[in-house]
Specification:
With 466 residues, the protein is an all-alpha fold. The protein is 61% helix and 1% strand. It has 16 helices and 2 strands. It has helices at residues 21-38, 40-47, 49-70, 81-92, 100-123, 126-155, 194-213, 219-236, 239-258, 266-287, 289-295, 305-316, 354-386, 404-419, 426-441, 454-458; strands at 342-343, 346-347. The protein has a two-stranded antiparallel sheet with strand order 1-2. α6 crosses α8 (219-236), α7 runs antiparallel to α8 and α9 (239-258) packs antiparallel against α14 (404-419). It starts with 20 loop residues before the first helix and ends in an 8-residue tail after the last helix. Mean pLDDT is 87; it is low at 4-12 and 450-466.
């Protein structure tokens, strides 16, 4: 008769512990919150600004209740205090704002986005955070494809926000979808904006590729998702996203090379080389922008952005220290905004540069706070990616592909922020807070406050205080 002992060689294998329903629901909720951040503009186009506002506020209340129930462990000293400083200064600007109602409304969105980023990072492990971002990205990719397909098959013409069919020809800038799926034109997805679609698809490609490298379940399907996101990325035709993609590839190559360093000082030579390459490429891109952007089908003035920047600088210089008051995005109905800068008959609602937008709204103080916030994020995410995981004398632990996500997203945000204000709100700002806080709380994948016990990985709720 067969005999079995508890010795690991002869003991019967045990199946991995199953996650509880509660943890699965928690992760599903985090996916929904991330979808609101990634595809929030699409939600506004579908159900309107007021209804979306109700959904966003309600989601924050639900997350606050869950935080109170779960009480995830949080090290207060390891919170992203520089990001909090930026949020606090934005809130203080309400006191002198030239558009106080807009400041209150948009600051509430900023505060909710910040809180949701902290919430997701506190209740999920690194593995679950990356998985949740990937799941939210799948929804954005899938809905964008289905939306464009439905418009081309059933509407067979342009579509306005709110699923309204325009009567007669209108300026294409107001269309939610331009019905370009089968005619080779630029796609806009659920965003109604090709530049926003391009950036979101780049995020999707990054996270899907990282999941594939991490040997996530159903890897062949991930290849299909990468192909779908790549198709939308190409069809979006966003020059900014294409440049950002090139920079992200450079960041990835640099990280992989840095991981091969074996001796002290070996990284220094690579840093100097890549710094020279990066500065040279940046200079070539700027001084040769007429050729580069012409090849991408864009004007050398970045589709009118240089004129917008000049107008923003002229107004911002009137209040260079504290700014005009926070409002990201700008509210078109505000008297000082309505008709100030007009493009294709529509009032422009951003400076098309997160740095100029911050200078206009929060002055030099706000720019300094934002620079410190982004520098801290880029610094921590970089070493999170290039340093080998180590918490004892063992120095040969393998790198995790999951650690690549924050620094690659950081590279995307740095480039996008040059010509867009998007990194200051929704998924851009949420990722800065989420990943920035998560790296500080759990600097090693598999350990840290959110991973101190395997009970979270099994789905058992922790109830220890911070």
């Amino acid at each position: 008769m067969a005999m079995h002992t508890t010795h690991p060689v002869s003991a019967l294998p045990t199946p991995p512990p199953r996650e509880t329903t509660g943890h699965l629901l928690l992760r599903a909720w985090c996916v929904f919150v991330l979808f609101l951040a990634l595809g929030g503009v699409g939600v506004i186009n579908a159900i309107g600004l007021a209804a979306t506002g109700v959904v966003v506020v309600a989601s924050a209340i639900v997350s606050a209740v869950l935080w109170t129930i779960l009480r995830p462990p949080v090290a207060l000293r390891r919170l992203p205090w520089l990001a909090f400083g930026y949020v606090a200064w934005a809130g203080a600007s309400i006191a002198w704002s030239a558009w106080p109602a807009a400041s209150v409304l948009t600051w509430l969105l900023l505060a909710i986005t910040t809180f949701q980023g902290l919430f997701i990072g506190a209740v999920l492990t690194w593995r679950d955070v990356v998985g949740a971002v990937a799941s939210a990205a799948k929804w954005v990719v899938g809905l964008s494809l289905l939306f464009e397909l439905a418009v081309s098959l059933f509407v067979r013409g342009p579509l306005l926000p709110g699923f309204a069919v325009p009567e007669g020809r209108m300026d294409p800038i107001v269309y939610w979808s331009r019905d370009n799926l089968f005619d080779g034109g630029r796609l806009q997805g659920i965003f109604g904006n090709a530049n926003l679609l391009g950036a979101a698809m780049l995020v999707a490609i990054i996270v899907f590729a990282i999941r594939y490298a991490a040997k996530a379940p159903r890897r062949p399907l991930l290849l299909g998702w990468i192909a779908a996101a790549g198709f939308l990325f190409v069809r979006a035709g966003s020059a900014t996203s294409i440049v950002a993609a090139a920079f992200v590839v450079l960041v990835l190559a640099t990280v992989l090379v840095m991981r091969t360093a074996r001796r002290p000082g070996e990284r220094t030579r690579w840093y100097l080389l890549y710094a020279a390459v990066g500065l040279g490429a940046g200079a070539a891109l700027w001084f040769g922008r007429e050729t580069v952007f012409g090849a991408l089908g864009r004007d050398s003035d970045l589709t009118g952005r240089e004129g917008i920047w000049a107008d923003v600088l002229t107004r911002a210089d009137q209040h260079p220290i504290v700014g005009w008051g926070y409002s990201t995005p700008w509210i078109a109905s505000e008297p000082l905004i309505d008709g100030w800068i007009v493009d294709h008959g529509q009032t422009v609602v951003q400076a098309h540069s997160m740095w100029l937008d911050t200078y206009l709204q929060l002055g030099g103080v706000g720019v300094v706070l934002l620079v410190l916030t982004m520098l801290a994020y880029v610094w921590r995410s970089w070493f999170f990616a290039v340093d080998r995981p180590r918490w004892d004398l063992r120095a040969d632990r393998p790198y995790s592909p999951l650690t690549l996500l924050p620094t690659m997203i950081g590279g995307l945000l740095v480039v996008q922020g040059l010509t867009e204000s998007a990194p200051l709100l929704l998924w851009g700002w949420m990722f800065v807070v989420l990943f920035g806080a998560k790296i500080k709380q759990s600097p090693l994948v598999g350990v840290g406050p959110a991973e101190q016990s395997m009970s979270i990985e099994r789905g058992e709720l922790q109830r220890s205080g911070s």
